Amino acid sequence: MVGVELPTANIQCMKRTVFDTQFLSMAVKMFLRVFCPKSSRIWGYNSSDPDDWILKIGLYMKTLKIIIERGEDMFGAYAENIQGVYGAGDTVEETKQSILDSIDLLKEYNSPENIPSLLKGDYKIAYHFDAESFLNYYKGIFTNAALEKITGINQRQLQHYSSGLKKPRLPQLKKIEDGLHNLAKELQSIELV
């Protein structure tokens, strides 16, 4: 049995780089042949399938991208990269559950060859909001004053975005996203004593 330990920093660096999955699969296969010819026991994980390894170390994972939008009287959602996955609800939580039910129904009532490959095996779901839906969904948590402080966008403009009166341009969306991600990093670094 061969044990190989790779530096974690290299794996983290790889996660942030976009790879062609065929190239990545080939690289993992070569690695396994060279360093683990008889066994693929690394980090306590037994498998000879390179695709299992790629998923295990997180170099790529299939992602189902769900778009959530607010309508006049409810929220709606759809899968951007799979046909036939739709959901709706009065709240975002109901809409997310509706999407999960839609995926379950798609898997249950289709033959295995008709199930999209993305839904076979492990995958993650990424929820994407339009600005109006996001601002309304988190209205009880983030006031416009708090969002102004986090993003640098004035309250009146944020109110226009949340009401649907105006749509934010790409630089404004980036400001909102970056501000929220920075807040999340700050909150994750806090330890209470």
Helix percentage range? 40-55%
Question: Low-confidence spans: pLDDT under 50, at least 5 residues?
Answer: 1-20, 39-45
Radius of gyration: 21 Å
- Order of the strands making up the biggest sheet: 3-2-1-4
**Helix-strand string:** HHHEEEHEHHHH
Strand content: 5-15%
| Gross CATH architecture of the largest domain | 2-Layer Sandwich
CATH topology category name of the largest domain: TTHA1013/TTHA0281-like
The total count of strands amounts to: 4
CATH class of the largest domain: Alpha Beta
Question: In brief, what are we looking at here?
Answer:
The chain is α+β, with helices and mostly antiparallel strands and 193 residues long.
Description:
By secondary structure, this protein is of the alpha+beta class. The chain has 3 domains: 8-56, no CATH class; 63-129, TTHA1013/TTHA0281-like; 131-188, 434 Repressor (Amino-terminal Domain), CATH 1.10.260. Helix content is 47%, strand content 12%. It has 8 helices and 4 strands. It has helices spanning 8-15, 21-35, 50-56, 92-108, 131-137, 144-151, 155-163, 170-188; strands at residues 63-70, 75-79, 86-89, 124-129. Strands 3-2-1-4 form a 4-stranded mixed beta sheet. The longest helix is centred in the C-terminal third of the chain and has 19 residues, at 170-188. The chain is globular. It starts with 7 loop residues before the first helix and ends in a 5-residue tail after the last helix. Mean pLDDT is 78; it is low at 1-20 and 39-45.
